[in-house]
Amino acid sequence: xxxxLKTLDEITxxxxxxxxxxxxxxxxxxxxxxxVPDGLVVPPDAxxxxxxxxxxxxxxxxxxxxxxxxxxSSGLAEDSAGDSFAGMHETTLNVDRARLAETVRHCxxxxxxxxxxxxxxxxxxxxxxxxxxVLVQRMVPAVKSGVAFTVNPVTGANEIIxxxxxxxxxxxxxxxVNPEEERLPKxxxxxxxxxxxxxxxxxxxxxxxxxCFDGEHYWVVQSRPVTTTVPSEVRPALSTRGSEIEWTxxxxxxxxxxxxxxxxLDAYVPLLDKGERAFFGRLxxxxxxxxxxxxxxxxxxxxxxxxxRHVTDSVGAAFANTLRSLGxxxxxxxxDDVAPKPSxxxxxxxxxxxxxxxxYDLRMARIFHDHQARARQVEERLTQVNPSTLSDKEIWAxxxxxxxxxxxxxxPVFVMSSVQAREDVIRKACARVGFxxxxxxxxxxxxxxxxxxxxxxxxxxxxxxxxxxxxxxREYLRRxxxxxxxxxxxxADTKFLTEFEQFLSRYGHRGRYxxxxxxxxxxxxxxxxxxxxxxxxxxxxxxxxxLSQRQAAEARLAWQQFxxxxxxxxxxxxxxxxxxxxxxxxxxxxxxxxxxxDLTRVLAALRPYHLTLARRFVERRxxxxxxxxxxxxxxxxxxxxxxxxxxxxxxxxxxxxxxxRAAERDLRxxxxxxxxxxPALMAAGASxxxxxxxxxxxxxxxxxxxEVVVMRDPSEFIAMKRGxxxxxxxxxxxxxxxxxxxxxxxxxxxxxxSHASTIAREYGLPALANVKDxxxxxxxxxxxxxxxxxxxxxxx
Length: 796
Hints:
By secondary structure, the protein is of the alpha+beta class. Among the domains are: 139 residues, ATP-grasp fold, A domain (Dna Ligase, domain 1, 2-Layer Sandwich), CATH 3.30.1490.20; 90 residues, 2-Layer Sandwich (D-amino Acid Aminotransferase, Chain A, domain 1); 176 residues, no CATH class; 111 residues, Glucose Oxidase, domain 1 (3-Layer(bba) Sandwich), CATH 3.50.30.10. The chain has 30 helices and 22 strands. Strands 15-22-21-17-18-19-20-16 form an eight-stranded mixed β-sheet, covered by helices on one side.
């Protein structure tokens, strides 16, 4: 016999164990007279056949046909005093009747998600807590939504804390946007405060209340006990500076633009979170303890630094080296340099993951070559088809296939980027014999084989040499206004054009902030390369062979000076290990750049599929501009591809996202933060600093005096001057042509592994990274002395 479905008005105390905490709390409030949207509960033992007939229930007869619904989980332990399961299970809004059964089943399956299982395991919850009921409620057309705490969840003060956002509240609950916050005394006469106080009285304990406002009335959609205090048993795994989670976007700021497109951001956050957790396994703490591995604030993704600390603590490593590699040396405390000793129980728990990661390192070459083969196969498959010949559904199927397989590409990136252990071996060896780590490492990383990104710079120089020898090519480049829009017709039948097309076939998949597929590739907009070639025409021809010979000589000299510090015994024992480790480190750097280039090839091959859909959406008047397509998240694209009736809603979605991006565009978010400090840090970041001396991390030694050109984006390429010192927030391969014009490099973000560091070393440019506020303190035209070897920039 099919179990009974009950409305909120029909639920009694005896139903608590089968309808779950969320539904029971809503029923209790609705029956007490509070404004709760009416709803129906699907119990955990309802069959798939019963769910398929859900919309036939008598409750739906009283509702107009166009009514939309909110589908929310209601776990058996959910919203209890000890376990909130907040964000662990699925919630889907604006569901029509046709999708209701499918959405309910999807919600039930979320109880078996990785994060829900981790949450239950962390709390030793019994197996029956896996079962969840599903609450289907009438959707409220909210103009404002939020949460209200009847006690301050941070300080414990007896006051009401209200967080609110415009529209639906899911973006607030999921952490995608930052809310307006208001503190109210419990005597406040406003309707929302009175509701909050009344709900607290019903349950007899402080409540975390989700609410929405439809323009006339407030509605309560959820209430649960406040459970936001960090448990004492979790605190030791957090930062040593307190129990609040720390966040960094230092390395992400090198890869992503200041504002990722909403489409790319929505895809990358779960992809990277899933990939990192799969890679590190139990070395990471459960999300319920230390939060997600990656999270977006104001459209900027951040990595969870407390999770990274948990990883290093688990293996007994000092966290200071991680902070240095990320560019946060100012955050290092004395205890960060001390390697902790994990308990035997904790260590044994992570041994399988340590063994697995060690295996990755031993199989690094195989992993790299397998990755290359897989990337080539995907690229070939994508480029063999003209997406304009495919239907919307077929294009979406292609995009979905990439989404499904994208996690496979994450481990090679992490394996090639895991250089800290090898750097530690070399650093300790140098310290042991009293020799500079930088003096040994930098020359050897610069010498020998070039990374794919540095080779791009040398190929630009080679193209300049070709253009220099052809009158028509040389004169066209010199006289052009910088757009180079007609270069193919103007340079037809020249040797330069033939070799430039070959250059684009090798590097045309790269581009400005190439990880975001909403941004055009180099093959679409080659003007920056042509500009760099033009600026090289009047420069003395550069000889890459001479540079390579000089770098090789400097590497040999570094080894001779290092060996001179060794005892005879150390020459037999220490020296071979350091040589081998440094060779492996160099290889990792090369492979890392190659892996990144391969991944970008796949994104470039996918871009025509996106552009085809974008043009179709504009032709159908679903969107105003093709760029608006990238304001949509991929699930919205999927829905429009599968059900064209949904296309009419896309223009409003895009307009709302565009307004939000515009409001967040000029915000200056810190590279390191604790979440509660964010408002103060943003306020501090809004003011310009002033100093004649800046310091940073030497990533390529040398010294140069010169004029600086400050650029926040490579699209400003026309401002670059040959022989100037390039100052930028961070660089990716799209900046490479500008390195051929620079005499030195200063970046605000980056470490030894960053793009700026790699190119500068291999190209022979002095470079400093982690120069805080360099693009604000320095102005184009300033003359400075860049003493990278000493880690100092001084305004002259």
